[in-house]
Amino acid sequence: MTSRRAFLGKAAALGGIAVAPGLFLFEPARAKGVTSKVRWGMLVDTTRCDEGCDACVAACNRENGLSGRTGPDDSQWIRKLELKEEATGRTLSLPVMCQHCAEPPCVDVCPTGASFKRADGIVLVDRHICIGCRYCMMACPYKARSFVHYPLHDQKPDVPRSQGCVEACTLCVQRVDRGEQPACVEACGATGRQALFFGDLNDPQSEISRRMRAAGAKQIRADLQLDTGVRYQGI
Questions:
Q1: Which of 38, 106, 161, 213 is the most buried (most CB within 10 A)?
Q2: Strand boundaries in 85-223, DSSP class E
Q3: DSSP class per residue in 101-113
Q4: What is the pLDDT of residues 75-114, one digit of tens each?
Q5: pTM value?
Q6: What is the SS3 assignment for 171?
C-alpha cells in the first residue's frame, strides 16, 4: 500500500496538493500573479434593483454554464430575495451570492483545502480536490453554495465544473483575470439600472470605494465579523 508520505510526494510533483485547510505545497496555477494589493468586491444598490428584473441571474447562468433551474438540487450562484419590512411595508429586492469574506467560514471547515481564498479576496473551490463533503455549505451563513448532483455536459472551457463538487459565485474570476467586469455587473449596467458595481476595495479612488463613502454600505450579518467583499446600500 502506498504510504501517505509517498502519496503526498507524487501529488506534489503533479502540481500541488493541500496538506491542511488553505495550505498548499505549491501555489495553484490559477493564482499566479495575484496579490493582496487588490481586494475585489461588489456593491449592490438595492434602491436601483428592480423586483421584476433577473438580468444579473440570467447573465450569471449564461456565463458559467448553469441550467437556470431553481430546484433544491440545482446550482444557483445568485438568488434574488424579495424582502418586506413588516412595520412599514417597504420591499427590497436583494441579489445574494457568495459574499467573498475576508474570514470565510467555508475555508475554515474544508478538510482538503479545496475551499480557499485568493490573495485578491476571491473565494473559490478547487474541483480537483473537493470531496463533496459539503461542510462548507453548512458553514456558509448566506446559503450561497450549491452541490452538483448531476453529470454535466457542454461545459464552458474556462469555467470547469464537476459532478460531486461544491460550487458558488466566483465573481466571474475568469473575466476578472482578463481585466473585465463580472457578467452580472455588465448585464445590470446594460439594463440602465446600474445597481451593481465591481472594483477594488483597497483603492480609495475606485468607483466602488467612492460610492461606499458617499452613501454608506452594509454587510449582511455584519455581526459575524466576516468582513464580506459584497456590500449593500439601502438595506
A1: 106
A2: 91-96, 115-117, 123-125, 146-147, 166-167, 196-200
A3: -SS-HHHHH-SSS
A4: 999 999 888 788 887 888 899 999 999 999 999 999 999 9
A5: 0.85
A6: coil
